[in-house]
Amino acid sequence: xxxxxxxxxxxxxxxxxxxxxxxxxxxxxxxxITFGVAWRFSAPPAFPTDALITIPADSSAxxxxxxxxxxGVIRSSSAFLILARISGLDHSxxxxxYVFKEPMNVTGIVSYIGHGRHGISPAxxxxxxxxxxxxxxxTLDENVPGFDKPAxxxxxxxxxxxxxxxxxxxxxGESPDDVVVRLRSRFxxxxxxxxPEILASPHSFSDVVIMASILEREAKTLxxxxxxxxxxxxxxxxGLPLQVDAAFGYIHDENGYTPTALDLQSDSPYNTYxxxxxxxxxxxxxxxxxxxxxxxxxxxxxxxxxxxRDGLMHYAKTFEEHKKNRALYLD
Length: 331
Description:
Helix content: 40-55%
Strand content: 5-15%
Largest sheet: 2 strands, antiparallel
C-alpha cells in the first residue's frame, strides 16, 4: 500500500502558496516534536507499580537515570537528567529503595526522588533472645520485603552471638551488610552498660559470649541464669564436660531438640558430652540479661541442674542428688 494515502494531502500542500506551505510544515514539525517530547516525558505503559526499585548508595544522577530506565520507571534517561538539572535536584537525588503506588511521568519521578519520598514505611521486626543467625535470617526474610537472605547469612557468618536481639526498623531491600552492622553496633552499645562486670570477670570476652549464648537457651530468669552460670563455670574448672543439650539444638538448627544416643557419640565439637570446656562458638545470640549472668554467676558448689515438668530449675551437688531430681521432676 505504501504512502499512497498521503497523496491527496501532498497535492493539497502543493496547491498552497510558498509562505502557507512553510506555516503548515512548521506546524506539522512542531506537533511532531511536541508529541515526541510528551512521549519521552510520559509514564511507560508497563510502569512497575508497587515493585521495589533499588538505587545503590553513591549513585550519580546518570546512575539513577540508567536504573530507572532499565526498571521501566521512565522512558528516557535524557529527559530525566534534563529535568533533574533544570529543577536543581540532580545533587539531592536520594539513593535507596523506592515504591511507586501509581504511574508517574518523569516530572513527578524527579520530584519524588529528589525530595527523598520513598513511598514505603520501614518494617518493624522483633528479634528475640536466643535466636541463632539462621533464625534471624528467616525472621527478616519473612518480614522485610526484598530482603536478601543468602547474602545476609554470608555477611553474618562470623557474627553468631554478636547480633543483638531487639526491635528494629528495616527498610525494604536494606543491604544485608548494613543489617549486620546495625545488629553488631547494638550489641556493642548494650555490652558497654556492663563494662565493669565484664572487666571484673576472670574469663575472656569470647568465652563470656559463648557462656551467655548457652544460658539463653538453658534458663529463663536472671536468677536461674546466674545459678546455671555458676554451675557451668564450676564444671569447666573441675574438668567436667558441660553436658548441655541446647548445643545439639544448634547443631541441628532446631530449638528444643532432644539429643539422641547417636548425637551423644558424635564427633562434633559442639558435643558437650564428649568434649570438655565450652563449645567452639556461641550457640545463639544472647540478650543483655544472659550476658550479665555470665559475668556475675552465683557462687555455688552445685554441679548439676535440670528443668522439671513443673517448669522450675532443680539443682544438685552430686550425681546421686541429680538422679533423685530426675526421678522426682522428670521421670
